[in-house]
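hey
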């Protein structure tokens, strides 16, 4: 079972933008995909963030980050010693590129990153699929459930309309899956449709 959790809200272009994270109930434990934000920093005050750390589950098998922008990894610090799965390219970029993220939210005491290069099955029914576009190291999580295939898409797209355009490699990969898709900033999942 997949559950969405409102982890933060940001002010973008005058409108409140929700930031959702997800849990996957798996026989081997709860998996958290992205961690939202648990506080703020001056670097992002212009977005008037409202973190909701109380909505982030704590008892986990491991964490998956779709990418390491601040609104997706800000809660990683709640999980010292817990494996955090990320594409190697994403971690390298977060550590080296200027204005990419808040580095202290990536590298913290007890951070335990598991780096991947390419597609990998983490557990039966849970697969990481590179989906470059929003960032070069962005990945989505493909989850096989009794009800069918789901994609936890992170920021592969901000909206389903944008996703339907299929302008990035990551968007095209998600569209090809023809699966129920969850986006970080959309309140409900849906099966995305390719736009002409």
């Amino acid at each position: 079972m997949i559950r969405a959790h409102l982890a933060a809200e940001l002010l973008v272009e005058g409108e409140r933008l929700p930031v959702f994270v997800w849990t996957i109930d798996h026989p081997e434990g709860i998996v958290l995909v992205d961690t939202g934000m648990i506080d703020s920093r001056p670097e992002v005050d212009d977005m008037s963030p409202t973190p909701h750390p109380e909505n982030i589950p704590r008892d986990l098998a491991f964490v998956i980050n779709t990418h390491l922008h601040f609104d997706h990894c800000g809660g990683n610090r709640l999980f010292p010693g817990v494996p955090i799965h990320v594409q190697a390219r994403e971690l390298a970029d977060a550590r080296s590129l200027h204005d990419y993220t808040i580095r202290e939210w990536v590298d913290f005491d007890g951070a335990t990153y598991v780096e991947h290069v390419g597609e990998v099955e983490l557990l039966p029914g849970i697969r990481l699929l590179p989906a470059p576009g929003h960032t070069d190291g962005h990945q989505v999580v493909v989850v096989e459930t009794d009800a069918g295939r789901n994609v936890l898409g992170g920021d592969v797209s901000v909206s389903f309309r944008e996703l339907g355009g299929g302008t990035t490699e990551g968007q095209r990969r998600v569209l090809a899956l023809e699966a129920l898709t969850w986006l970080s900033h959309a309140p409900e999942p849906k099966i995305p449709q390719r736009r002409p």
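The chain is about 15% helix and 35% strand. The mean pLDDT is 95.
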